[in-house]
Amino acid sequence: MTTLDLILASSSRYRQAQLQSLGLAFRTAVPNIDEVALSHETPLSISRRLALSKALAVAKQCPASVVIGADQVLDLDGLPLGKPGSHDAATRQLRLLSGRVAYFHSAVSVISPRTQQVTVSTTRAVFRQLSVTQIESYLLFDRPYDTAGSAKAESLGIALLEELSSDDPSAIIGLPLIALTRLLNNIGIDPISLSKQG
Asked: Which metal ions or organic cofactors does this protein require, according to UniProt (predicted)?
């Protein structure tokens, strides 16, 4: 592969910014897939399946490209929490999460003409006891309606937490870059060598 055609199968501005931080040239494509959870699916398996499905959907249209897919699902005692989509739904999510331990499963998939890879990085999050006023104030500030679990850890959402632990600190934002770099290296793509200079 002399010229790398790298595609991020996502419309997420957060994941685009994360991938840009690696200095790689890439383009984006929106995967048109059904993201509804299947019956008896765990939060972890949902994240894996959707990350792979997003990458496969775009790879089908661009078979010579390297395609990255990603998905994140919050796991609260086995209950999957995705993007709330509205203020009311976000309020309900944060009330559920108040004072609880939850897990953010951040899956990433890399599809190339010869291989399919998918892995998950999990972040353990301990939420503070949150008052109704704190939840409302936070939501009005961050408006995290497009974020799994209604908490933007890269912004004021970090103040909702007592503790955050992961083997990949970038995973909480939605694209686990350590895991992604490993998958890219597996197919002979070294982001350090390919990063744009200047």
From this structure: a divalent metal cation
CA–CA separation, 97 vs 95, rounded Å?
A: 5
Residues tagged active-site: 71
Longest Cα pair distance anywhere in the chain, in angstroms? 56
Q: In whole numbers, what is the pLDDT of the chain averaged over residues?
A: 93
Task: Work out the number of other CB atoms within 10 angstroms of the CB of residue 167.
Answer: 11
Structure tokens at 96: 């559920």
Percent of the chain with pLDDT over 90: 82
Q: Are 160 and 90 in contact (CB under 8 A)?
A: no
Half-sphere exposure of 18 (CA within 13 A, CB side): 25
Answer yes or no: pTM beyond 0.85. Answer: yes
The pair of structure tokens assigned to 197 is 């200079």
User: Per-residue pLDDT tens for 2-20?
Assistant: 578 999 999 889 999 999 9
Question: What CATH class does 6-194 carry?
Answer: alpha beta
